Amino acid sequence: MKKAQRKTKKLRSKEKQKKKPSVCSYAPRTQASETTPICSGTQLYIPMFTCWIVGFVAAVIFCRYFGQSCKDQPIYYLDQPTYKNCTPTPTNTTAPEPEKPILLVWEWPETIDFKFDPIECKNRFNIDSCHLTDDRSLYNQSDAVLLPHKSIKKDLSNLPKDPRPRFQKWIWFNLESPTNTRQKAGLENIFNLTLTYRRDSDISVRYDVDVSKTPHENFVIPKKDKLVCWFVSNMDPGTGTGTRMKFYEELSKYIKVNVYVNMSGSRLKDEDYYPTMESCKFYLSFENSIHKDYITEKLNGPFAAGTVPIVLGPPRENYEQFAPGDAFIHGDDFPNTSAMTEHILKLDKDDEAYRKYFDWRKYMSVIPHYKVWNEEFILPICRACDYIARHKDYRETHELFKWFFS
């Protein structure tokens, strides 16, 4: 009896377990032998919610420990960088200005009284490429040292005493012709550059005739009340003036020459220099000595004043390397002084023929040289300043006087 009751209880307990709902029930598929589990809604969303929480926490941790501030991390695009939430700093694209080379004028030419403000190089010739100074304390830093030949003592005792830096160039500066240049032993092989009137100098200086592609306005010839003029201050035969004095004496036999400055016994004021010259139809542009390329301000003056120069110097071919051939009269154009005089007198009466000497003015011009005698040194010194700024190559000059006196 008791055994039968215990069996009955076990059977009822098994049936209750069968009736208790399971987590998943199975629905039959098309084939009776296979079933598909179907889970309840609560059990399905629990793993999804857990995954979302884990992902959110991972994202927060990544941003906290691996993110960078906008100051450190720019966001780059192809065109230009853009900074998130930051004001971009402008980039300076201007290249730094190179340091200007130093040109040291060891001695001022001719006289200690002659000096000029370096700003004149910029104002007059638009040259502002070096630092020009006469401060000898800058010797060891100077890129070049300018040494005027006339200022160098015969025993060379006033040359720089300190050893020359390897980068430094010495410039031999001389505007005189060989006739008026004294050779000084010991100078033949110590210079790097030459600065003279000669075309084959390293730095050649003269008053150029500038050519323009655009024609200028019609040139008006200044009013003339004199036929021939001559400004002459140097009459020392030891400087080679004998040739030009002889030419003048011959010419004055046939025609009146208006003479000014020392030869006339009176000084011409600086402000009267160009006005007096432009009042003359012809001007005697006689060099004190005759050498290749030795063509000085004596040609520039009458060109600038609007006067026809009568030149005495190197051959016509040499003059035509610097000026148009139809702008001047050369002494070699005539067999003698009498024939030249006839030509001058003819031009005086023929305005049309005289005007042809100014045809070059349509496409050419000149910059007037300066009336004060020692201002002639400003242009060469400024040119030297410009040269050392543009030329960095190494050079040496050997047998200086053999070259210059050739």
TrEMBL record:
Protein name: Fucosyltransferase
Assembly, per entry: Homodimer.
Transmembrane segments: 44-67
Residue ranges with Basic residues bias: 1-21
Enzyme Commission number(s) of this protein: 2.4.1.-
Residue span(s) of domain Fucosyltransferase N-terminal: 99-207
Originating species: Pygocentrus nattereri (Red-bellied piranha)
Domain Fucosyltransferase C-terminal: 222-403
Positions of region (Disordered): 1-28
